[in-house]
Amino acid sequence: MLAHDHAVPRIEITPVVGIGELRPGDDLAEVIAERASLYDGDVVVVTSKVVSKVERRLIVLETDDPDVREAARLAAIEDETARVVAHGPGPLRIVQTRHGFVMAAAGVDASNIARNELALLPVDPDASAELLREGLRERLGVEVGVIITDTMGRPWRNGLTDAAIGVAGIRALTDPRGETDVYGNVLGVTRVSVADEIAAAADLVKGKLSGIPVAVVRGLAPDGKLPDDGLGSRELVRPAHEDLFRLGTEEAIALGREDAAGADAVPPPLHADAVGVISRMPRGDVASSSVREAFLGFLAARPDAMWRACVAGHLTASAIVIDPSREAVLLTLHPRVGMWLQVGGHCEPGDHTLLDAAAREAREESGIGALSFDPVPIALDVHPITCSLGVPTRHFDVQFLAVAPADAEPVISDESVDLRWFSWNDLPPRAAAEIPQLIELARERLQA
User: At what angle do helices 269-279 and 354-366 cross, to 10 degrees?
Assistant: First the structure.
C-alpha cells in the first residue's frame, strides 16, 4: 500500500473457520493462531462481539424473558451513551458513545448471543486490537494489522455495513490532500477510510448468520510492511467542530425552542445578576481585571449573552468542588473535550442567578446535593469551544468555589465519562490547564 494511497493490485479475503463459541476468559489470540495461516502484512479482521465476549463485556440476566431483556437493553444503552444525537421511531436511538462513535443503540447488541445476555462494546477497542496483535506476534512471529469491527448504519443510505472501531498496526485513514492526480488536479478534500473499507470487505466472508467472526485480508502490503501511524481508530471519529449534522431534526428544533426564550432584545434578570456579581468581584492583578472588564463589555453588548443560542459566545457557570479535608478536588472527565475539568455548564431559563446555575450544574454532575458555595466567584475564564450549540463559539465561564459535606459520595452523570476525587498534589495528566490555578485560588479563599 502506497504511503498516501490505498489501492493495491490484488487482495485476498479468507474466513477463519472452526472458531466456534467463545466465552469470557478465552484466549482469542490462541484460538486464531491455531486456525489461521498468517504472514507479515496480513490484516486480521475481528467482529467486536467475540472481543466483547472474551473481555467479559457481557450483561448476563437471570432469565431469558424478552421483556426483562428489553428493559435491560434500554438501561444499558442509557449507561453507554455520552450524547443523544437523534430519536428514531419507537425505541430507536442514535447516540454518541463514550468512545466518540455515533451509532444506533450505543453498540449494545442482542444478536449472535445467548437469549439471556447482552453484549457491550469493548471498553477500549484500539487497546483490544493491539493486545490481539501482540498475542499473534508472540505465537506466530508475524507482524499483522488488526481491525475490530461493528455493524453501523449510514446517513442517507439504506443498509448496514461493518466499520472499524478498533485499529492496530495499520494506518486507518489515508490523507492524499496536496497530491496531484493524473489530470494535474491537486486533491483538497479526499481522505479514504482504509480501515472501514477493509472492515466492510471482510464482512463479505464473515456475514451476520454464518457464525464466522474472523477473516484475514492479504495483499494490502506486498512488501510485508503495513503503513502504521500509531493513531489507531481515533482519526476516524469526526471532531465536533467539523460535524455539520450533530443533532437530529427533532433534537435541533427542541434546542432552538429551548433557547428561543433567551434570544429577546430585553436582557433577562439573570443577565442583570451576572453584571452585578462580576462587578462586585475583588479587583486583582492587571490580567484578571482585564478579563473582568471583557466580561462586562460582552454583557453590555449582548442582551442574549446568558443563553447558548448566542453564537458569538455565552456565559457559563462552573464550580471547583473541594472535599472537607481541603486536600482533594472533584473533577469530571468531559466526553467532548477529553480533559478533566471542574463541574459546570450552560445557564438555563429557570436559573435566577449565576450562583443558581453553578449550584444546579454542580449537583447534576457530581450527584452531591449539599454543597456549600461561596457566593463570590473566584475566577473568570474565556475559552473557545464547540459545545452543544454545535458550532464554534466561546464560553465566558464564571467560576465558583464549593465545599462538599463530609463523606460525600459523588455519583457519575450521563454528561461525564468519569468522575473522581484527586489530591491537590496528584492531578491527572489530562487535567485542564486552569485546574491548578483554580485550586490555588480556592485555597486562598478558604484561608481568608
Answer: 90
Give CA–CA dist 166/125, Å, rounded: 4
CA distance 331 to 349: 26
Instruction: Give ∠ CA 51-167-20 in degrees, rounded to 5.
Output: 30
- Residue ranges, comma separated, of all CATH 3.30.1330.100 domains in the chain are 12-57+122-237
**What are the CA-CA distances from residue 94 to residues 31, 90, 155, 215 (Å)?**
34, 12, 11, 28
CATH class of residue range 249-447: alpha beta
**What's CA 100's distance to the chain center, in Å?**
3
Q: What is the pTM of this model?
A: 0.61
To which residue does cell 466567584 refer?
Answer: 377
Residue 18: its pLDDT value, please?
93
- Which residues share a beta bridge with 263? none
Q: Which amino acid is at 260?
A: A
Say how many residues make up the chain. Answer: 448
Tell me: domain 12-57+122-237, CATH 3.40.50.720, correct? no
Which residues lie across from 154 on neighbouring strands? 157
pLDDT tens readout for residues 108-122: 998 888 999 999 999
395 Cβ partners below 8 Å, 6+ apart? Answer: 313, 314, 315, 316, 381, 382, 383, 385, 387
The answer to whether the beta carbons of residues 66 and 117 sit under 8 Å apart is no
Element (H, E) at 115: none
Q: CA–CA separation, 310 vs 46, rounded Å?
A: 45
**Angstrom distances, CA of residue 10 to CA of 36, 220, 223:** 20, 8, 13
234 three-class SS: helix
For residue 326, what are the CA distances in angstroms to 418, 441, 447? Answer: 21, 13, 10
Residue of 278, 304, 303, 282 whose CA lies nearest to 293: 278
Torsion (CA) 133, 139, 142, 145 in degrees, nearest 10: -20
Plot region of 407 (φ>0 → left; ψ -120 to 50 → alpha; else → beta): left
- pLDDT tens digit string along 152-193? 998 888 999 999 999 999 999 988 777 777 788 877 667 889
Residues 6+ positions from 302 with CB-CB distance below 8 Å: 310, 312, 313
d(CA 183, CA 160): 35
Neighbours of 239 (CB within 10 A): 9
139-150 residue pLDDT tens: 999 999 999 999
Between 2-16, 65-79, 217-231, 386-400, the lowest mean confidence (pLDDT) is in: 2-16
First to last CA, the chain: 65
Name the strand (E) or helix (H) holding 119: strand 117-119
